[in-house]
Amino acid sequence: MSLQQHLPVLLVVLPLLSAPLTVLLRNRTLAFGVVCAASWVGLVISILIWQQVQVSGTISYEIGSWAPPLGIEYRVDQLSAFVLVLVSAIAALVVPYSRASIETEVPTEQHYLFYTMFALCLTGLLGITITGDAFNIFVFLEVSSLATYVLIALGQNRRALLASYQYLIMGTIGATLLVIGIGFLYLMTGSLNLVDISNRLGDLNASRPVLVALAFITVGVSLKLALFPLHQWLPNAYTYAPSSVSSFLAATATKVAIYVLLRFYFSVFDHTIIFGALPLQAILMALALAGMFAASTIAIFQSDLRRLFAFSSVGQVGYIILGMALNSVNGVTSSVLHLFNHGITKGAIFMLLGIVSLRLGGVQLSQLNGLAKRMPLTSFAIVVCGLSLIGVPGTAGFISKWYLLLAALEQNLWWLAFLIVASSLLAIMYVWRFVEVAYLQDPPADAPPVSAPPLMMAVPTGLLVLATVYFGLDTDFTVGSATAAAELLMGVAP
User: Fold this and answer.
1) Is the pTM of the predicted complex or chain greater than 0.70?
2) pLDDT tens track, the chain, 494 positions
3) Among candidate residues 308, 373, 387, 380, the one with its CA nearest the CA of residue 345
């Protein structure tokens, strides 16, 4: 076998092996080097896998040469390949960024442990995305979650411990519900392989145990992806975690959970039944709209920028779920697109806030008067990313919202299209709060000059900000991949 055939397993094994190695080395510089190398090699592998899927279609990798469904299978199709590129790219940028950002946020003696937990979190997220086994989704979910609880608790504010504890409680409940749902599926099919479960369900999709499984999986995963009103853990987690952790989680963790929901709804269950014969479509649309409006409204009244953009994330998740609930190729395309576009946008925003916090000591709006004069490039970049959240043309956020509007209009849901546009006006309001203090107010008279951010923080952040604009102009990769994934999930021939 050539090395290329083993790329799926190497993608998970590399960060998994780097975690214990960092503990053995117990040196922050060596730990950084190991995890940074693993993340960048992982990005290369993800791109190679994505290219292979475009050429030859879905990849099936048998673990231990045991053929599925008896053995565990790693399975990469258009959707999982796209999400793997997102997770790997964000990790490859956040690790160098964290080198400087954790200097003032995490005690020096804990730096190597930070990289250990980061590697485990990355392992879990990649494993969730690439595995074709339902129980292994749960296992990798727990690996990433346990590492995330520690990463959040490393925040310098004592409230980080409370945020970590809240996430632990909510995350444990979500994981428990998920594994119960998987148990019901195993009870009905005798299999844990996702493709095999789908084949065996057949006419059982409408049976009571399968519907119970659907309910447990929906609620369990919704807790992980912070669907309103199950989002209570997210604002504190994003606000009090170290800057690099907030950036990584905002860009990847909820997105991978959304991937899991997409996978179960469209690859395992019969989506024509769950969205047709059941009231699930109406429920998801109602919760998505509630999140879009309620969370965005709450964001307007926040005084801490991290918390403001954390509530913004809950609202943006609403757009993704709304596209999914429309149960059409354009709807699912908008969900997959926004999963990617919001990931890079929100990752960039939290990295920018980390730079501001490093130089000014915090990101309270009261501390940011005249920021545009003191940190002009950083302020401009925050505005650019804010425009992407609003959905202004020329940014990545516009593309996904455009497809969401198309999905609503093709079903003659004019009222829904109006609500999508109206919710974007709320995004204008909370982005304007930053513009107002940064550009329309003068800095304090005694404010000292602000030095340029460390290069290790500036370069990765700049690349993500540029990506937010680039993918709003050149959509070949994002729209092409998202459309192919949506057609695959909906069972439509390309």
Assistant:
1) yes
2) 567 788 888 999 999 999 999 888 888 889 889 999 999 999 999 999 999 998 888 888 888 777 777 788 888 889 999 999 999 999 999 999 988 888 888 888 888 888 999 999 999 999 999 998 889 999 999 999 999 999 998 887 788 888 889 899 998 999 999 999 999 988 888 888 888 888 888 776 667 888 888 889 989 999 988 888 888 888 888 888 888 899 999 999 889 999 999 999 888 887 777 777 678 888 889 999 999 999 989 989 888 888 999 999 898 999 999 998 888 888 899 999 999 999 999 999 999 999 888 888 778 888 888 888 888 888 899 999 999 989 889 898 899 899 999 999 998 889 988 999 998 888 899 899 888 888 888 777 776 777 778 888 889 999 999 999 999 898 888 888 888 888 888 876 55
3) 387
372 within some domain: yes
Report if residue 337 sits inside a domain.
Answer: yes
Separation CA 492–CA 93 (nearest Å): 35
Q: Is residue 307, in this structure, part of any structural domain at all?
A: yes
Domain residues for the domain of 479 are: 279-494
For residues 289 and 315, what is the distance between their CA atoms, to the nearest angstrom? 8
Do the domain assignments include residue 486?
yes
The one-letter amino acid at 149: Y
Structural domains counted in the chain: 1
Q: Give the Cα separation of 150 and 168 in Å (integer).
A: 10
- 473: which 2 tokens? 């102009």
